[in-house]
Structure formats: structure tokens, C-alpha cells
Design goal:
This is ABC transporter substrate-binding protein. Keywords: Signal. Pfam families: NMT1_2. This protein is of the alpha/beta class. It has two domains: 209 residues, D-Maltodextrin-Binding Protein, domain 2; 102 residues, D-Maltodextrin-Binding Protein, domain 2. Strands 7-6-8-5-9 form a five-stranded mixed beta sheet. A three-stranded antiparallel beta sheet has the order 3-10-4. The longest helix has 20 residues.
């Protein structure tokens, strides 16, 4: 992975220090989202064309928004570094590595959502992470760098000691949440555990899986885990477009919080989720499942852990160190 990213990192660093030239703002914005209820604000933005509306208000009437969907953060990192993506969404842990290695050439735009992620299993032997043997497999979005992978490592450090934080890395396999749910339901695979996310973990609970680990227990309470991030070069070259994106994201959160039934319909229609709209509404109204606000919550606990395990050369003292200043306008003092 290090060899693969090195040329891209070099290009990103060169672009970050290159002199800027005054020019018109971009006419196309490329945005990536991921699977899961926690990414609903982006889904609402896309479905209701909220970015286009905010851009038009700012005088950018011809802005085209190109959406793509990824199953994990690693692919988005490569896309950001190669310049083929303007706004990415994914694990704060993966972003932290990117921020560190590019010396701040990429920064956070907003927190995605707040909610616990659960390690689920259909294997009755598994009651805690201490029960995993060398042949037991755990599906998660990305090995070592996803939110789920980091939380597993944090618990491993607590149970086995800091030097053994990576003890269960060999048990993990990269897999998108929908595929992992289907695999656990089939009962015909060696993968019998899934470090899940809303709404998939609730579906797995209904299907007979049990909870092995709750991230709120690891963090000591509610936390964010994923963010939207973007290159500083794009931010500086497109201030109106960037501001429109942040406004549109806030608009999406307001829609979800004030019109949950409408938000649930959007999610069900665009995700082909099998849950009823009523069940999705129930989850959206339950802060123990998922909630949405832009202000980062407990994210620096992740970067603190990564720094302690020598995967970051620098760590932010506060969230403001790694996010664009526009976010401050949406933080309640």
C-alpha cells in the first residue's frame, strides 16, 4: 500500500504548494458517498439536488454534480490523491493518515453522523473479542484503516495490551456492508462475524446475530466516526462552490431531523433497503442508532490512538486543526 500511494502523495504535495492562478470556479463537482444510514445526508443532497440549489443561489447556475458510490474509504483516498474526486466521505481514521502524510493538503469538511457501530456474530462461541481464534473471520469495510478496524484495534489494545493492538487484524476481511449482511444470513461461509453499521446491524440482530462489541463502550459514549473531506487546493480555488456544499449538507441534516419520513423514503428508494419506511423512521428518531450534526464529536480519540500506535507522525490537538474553518459557522457554542 505504501508503494502504491507514494507517487500519488508526491503529486498531492506538489499540487498543494504550487502557486494558484486566478480563474473561474469549477463547473463540475465530483462527490462520493458510501453505503449505510450514517451517510444519509449525502444521499438526501443528491436526491434533492441541494448542492445545485445552493450553487445557483451563489451565482453558479451551471454547476454539474457527479456522484459516485464506494464500498470503502481506501478507494476514495486514491481518488482524492489522483485528483479524480473533489469531496470524499469515509472513515476519520483513513482521513487522518491522509492528512498526516500530505501535511494538511487534505482537510475535513463536516462530520457525517453520530451513532454506534456493532460487531455482530452468528457464531454462538463468540461472546467477546477474546473468543476469536486464528480461523475466525470478521468482515468490515476496509482492513486496518476503516472505522470498524480501528475500533477493533482499540478494544484489542484494552484487552491484550497496547503492543497487541493489531492482534485481530489477520482475522479481518474487507467487504461492503450489504455483502456482509447477506453472507452472515446465508450461514454457508467461514465469515460469521461482521463489524457492521446502521441500519445493517439492526437487520442482523433481527436475523439472529448477536452483539459482540458496541463502539459506545469503547469510546465511553456517543461519537462520530466518518467525515466528508476535500483537498485544500479545491477549497481555495472554489470558495463559492465549497460554501454551497457546506450549506447544502446542513440543509440535508435539517430535512432529516424535521421530516424523517421523507428522509426515510429517500433512503429506502435509493438504497433498495428491505426495511420498511416505518422502521427506518424509528431508527432515524433513535439517537442510540444514528443522529446527525456537523460538529465533530470525539473524533480526536481515534487520532490519539493512531498516534500512540505510531501510525501518525503528528496528531491534532483539537478537531479545528484538521477541518476547514467554514464548519465553525455550524457549531453551537
Amino acid at each position: 500500500m505504501k508503494k502504491l500511494l507514494s507517487p500519488l502523495l508526491a503529486l498531492a504535495l506538489a499540487a498543494a504548494v504550487a502557486p494558484s492562478v486566478a480563474r473561474a470556479e469549477t463547473q463540475e463537482v465530483r462527490v462520493a458517498e458510501q453505503f449505510g444510514l450514517v451517510y444519509l445526508p449525502l444521499t438526501v443532497m443528491r436526491d434533492r439536488k441541494l448542492l445545485e440549489k445552493r450553487a445557483a443561489e451563489a451565482g453558479l447556475k451551471d454547476l454539474q454534480v457527479k456522484w459516485s458510490r464506494f464500498s470503502g474509504s481506501a478507494q476514495m483516498t486514491d481518488a482524492i490523491l489522483s485528483g479524480s474526486l473533489d469531496f470524499a466521505s469515509g472513515a476519520y481514521a483513513n482521513f487522518s493518515v491522509l492528512w498526516d502524510k500530505t501535511h494538511g493538503a487534505v482537510k475535513g469538511v463536516t462530520q457525517v453522523g453520530i451513532g454506534p457501530v456493532w460487531l455482530m456474530s452468528v457464531d454462538p462461541r463468540i461472546k467477546s473479542i477474546k473468543d476469536y481464534g486464528p480461523k475466525d473471520r470478521i468482515a468490515l469495510p476496509a482492513v486496518k484503516v476503516s472505522t470498524q478496524a480501528l475500533i477493533l484495534q482499540m478494544q484489542a489494545a484494552r484487552d491484550f495490551g497496547l503492543d497487541s493492538y493489531a492482534r485481530l487484524d489477520a482475522n479481518t476481511v474487507a467487504m461492503g456492508h450489504p455483502d456482509a449482511v447477506a453472507m452472515l444470513s446465508s450461514g454457508k461461509t467461514e465469515v460469521k462475524s461482521h463489524f457492521s453499521a446502521p441500519p445493517y446491524q439492526a437487520m442482523e440482530l433481527k436475523n439472529g446475530a448477536h452483539k459482540v462489541l458496541d463502539s459506545y463502550d469503547v469510546f465511553g459514549g456517543p461519537h462520530g466516526s466518518s467525515i466528508v473531506f476535500a483537498p485544500v487546493k479545491f477549497h481555495d480555488a472554489n470558495p463559492k462552490t465549497f460554501k454551497a456544499f457546506v450549506q447544502a449538507y446542513n440543509d440535508a441534516i435539517e430535512l432529516i431531523n424535521t421530516r424523517p419520513a421523507e428522509a426515510a423514503e429517500i433512503y429506502k428508494r435509493t438504497s433498495n433497503d428491505k426495511e420498511s419506511i416505518e422502521e427506518i423512521v424509528r431508527q432515524l428518531k433513535d439517537p442510540q442508532v444514528v443522529s446527525f450534526k456537523m460538529e465533530p464529536l470525539n473524533l480526536t480519540k481515534i487520532s490519539d490512538f493512531m498516534y500512540a500506535t505510531k501510525r501518525l507522525q503528528a496528531k491534532p490537538a483539537r478537531w479545528q486543526d484538521v477541518f476547514f474553518p467554514e464548519l465553525q459557522d455550524y457549531v453551537k457554542e
